[in-house]
Amino acid sequence: MMNLAADGVHGSLGSIGYGLAAIGPGIGIGIIFGNGVQAMARQPEAAGLVRQNMLLGFALAEALALIGVVMPFVYGT
User: Fold this and answer.
1) Given pLDDT bands bounded at 50, 70 and 90, which one contains residue 1?
2) In this predicted model, what pLDDT tens digit does every residue of 19-40 receive, in sequence order?
């Protein structure tokens, strides 16, 4: 009975997994930039240091999403 229900499923489940996994880095990037802008507004003289740390955090969070894009292709059949 379970096989009849699964016969209608086509495509890669890795793509669905990536779609769900992209939510985490998306939320993280929003938090990074939101708090970075707030920090620059509160202390404008530290804007250079805040911007540098903000971009570093963005690069690390975005790397997680890019790894998630590649993994379905690496382990896909």
Assistant:
1) very low
2) 777 788 889 999 999 999 999 9
CB 65 within 8 A of CB 47: no
Instruction: Determine the 3-state secondary structure of 54 from DSSP.
Output: helix
Who contacts 50 (Cβ-Cβ below 8 Å, separation ≥6)? Answer: 36, 39, 40, 43
pTM for the model: 0.70
- For the chain, the domains span 22-75
Residues 6 or more apart from 65 whose CB is under 8 A from it? 21, 22, 25, 26
* Of the options 1.10.150.20, 2.40.50.140, 1.20.20.10, 3.40.50.10490, the CATH number for the domain spanning 22-75: 1.20.20.10
